[in-house]
Amino acid sequence: MHFLGTVVRFVVAAIVLMFVGWIVPNFSVGGFWSALLLAVVIAAVGWIVEGIFGKRITPFGRGIVGFLASAAVIWIAQFIVGGVAVSIIGALLAALVIGIIDLFIPVATPFKVDERK
Hints:
Blueprint: H1 2-23, E1 27-29, H2 32-53, H3 63-77, E2 84-86, H4 88-104
Antiparallel strand pairs: 1-2
């Protein structure tokens, strides 16, 4: 059941990314498969950033640092996923829209970092 929940989260994230691509200028996603791969890459890069810098600077963190980290992760992900084009302004706007959508429809990341100290 855990695997199915993870798949559903990525599908919902892909749909959100397609919606964001539709309303945000300078942010375009080629189609569903590009959006799904983009969701996986954003989750993986966010997981790596969280592992290196800690929970406070991650795209899933709150505040301006989390917002800027989210925009940076979105902008970097375009170089990994084909069919995605994002400008810096588009990444900032996409991070803002995704953050607003996440307030109403939270999509948790399937990756967890060990928080033992």
